[in-house]
């Protein structure tokens, strides 16, 4: 019997669709100023989070980047708590204190995200060290962007994870840009997996943002990690459809053009996987997703603001 069952295509499509439509609604609402924090959208990048998280166990952990909506929802994070957090409301997943870049859901083993590039990597390894000592076969999947691979802490963390054979799956969402700087102007070579492999870590590159391929490779890596092989690394090529921060597009800013976008739209995971489903089944999923999002937005609209008396809570240790 295989360690990982065959993929449930309806479940995968539902996760992809939920993330896509949630973020499209965030983009729609954002200009009204009801959302109280900057937003970094994952539109176009959903397949990475969904593919990896679908291969995880419920008791595994994920550590998202500041572009965290996709990983948060793919791991089962509460949609109402996410929208409430975006609105700055007390019922938000960080009680209205964090906003878009600081999603957390410890009830689903979602480690808190951070707005500072690369800083979540060593925090995730702290969890991985604890899980290794626990000895129950649990794993941390830690997400990072291609820009984070240029931080010194990334290489320190690779070395530490390999040296101690930590149960960590590094997942690089390589969308080829660090804000507006293209990869070719930042990397002497594009051989990221080769650099990672020098630490004795199995490294795999997935070029097409295919959710099924990502899930399959993640499952293979996770099986080896649980068996004690130590960390593994996935470089998943993907593409950010919207601007680096905000709800709009940026193809007229001079650093990229729409011709780059079209091939990624043609192989969009949401559309291609949806097209493979029975039309009636797909329609039912779409309707359920729309109803869930509408309920989450309505709940956020009606939720209470944080009590101002709590302003200085959590600033100092008790």
Describe the structure.
This protein is α/β, with parallel strands linked by helices. It has one domain: Rossmann fold. Helices cover 42% and strands 9% of the residues. It has helices spanning 9-29, 46-55, 69-74, 79-86, 120-134, 152-163, 192-197, 211-226, 258-266, 269-275, 279-302, and strands at 61-63, 140-145, 168-174, 177-178, 181-182, 203-206, 232-237. The chain has a five-stranded parallel β-sheet with strand order 1-2-3-7-6, sandwiched between helices. Strands 4-5 form a two-stranded antiparallel ribbon. A hairpin with a 2-residue loop joins strand 4 and strand 5 (181-182). It is globular and about 50 Å long. The termini are far apart. The model has no long low-confidence stretch (mean pLDDT 96).
């Amino acid at each position: 019997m295989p360690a990982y069952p065959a993929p449930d295509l309806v479940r995968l499509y539902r996760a992809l669709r939920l993330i896509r439509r949630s973020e499209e609604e965030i983009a729609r609402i954002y200009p009204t100023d009801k959302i109280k924090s900057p937003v970094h959208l994952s539109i176009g990048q959903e397949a990475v989070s969904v593919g990896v998280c679908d291969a995880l166990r419920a008791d595994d952990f994920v550590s998202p980047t500041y572009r965290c909506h996709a990983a948060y929802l793919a791991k089962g994070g509460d949609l109402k708590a996410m929208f409430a957090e975006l609105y700055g409301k007390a019922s938000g997943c960080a009680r209205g204190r964090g906003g878009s870049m600081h999603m957390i859901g410890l009830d689903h083993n979602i480690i808190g995200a951070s707005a500072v590039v690369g800083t979540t990597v060593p925090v995730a390894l702290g969890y991985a060290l604890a899980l290794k000592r626990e000895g129950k076969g649990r794993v941390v999947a830690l997400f990072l962007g291609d820009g984070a691979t240029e931080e010194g802490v990334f290489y320190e963390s690779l070395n530490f994870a390999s040296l101690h054979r930590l149960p960590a799956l590094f997942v690089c969402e390589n969308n080829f840009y660090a804000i507006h700087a293209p990869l070719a102007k930042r990397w002497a070579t594009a051989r990221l997996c080769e650099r990672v492999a020098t630490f004795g870590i199995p490294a795999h590159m997935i070029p097409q943002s295919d959710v099924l391929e990502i899930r399959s490779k993640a499952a293979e890596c996770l099986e080896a990690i649980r068996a004690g092989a130590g960390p593994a690394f996935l470089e998943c090529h993907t593409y950010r459809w919207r601007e680096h921060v905000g709800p709009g597009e940026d193809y007229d800013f001079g650093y990229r053009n729409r011709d780059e976008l079209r091939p990624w739209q043609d192989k969009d995971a949401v559309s291609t996987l949806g097209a493979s489903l029975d039309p009636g089944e797909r329609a039912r999923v779409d309707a359920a997703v729309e109803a869930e999002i509408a309920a989450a937005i309505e709940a956020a609209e009606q939720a209470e603001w944080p009590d101002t008396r709590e302003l200085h809570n959590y600033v100092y240790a008790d």
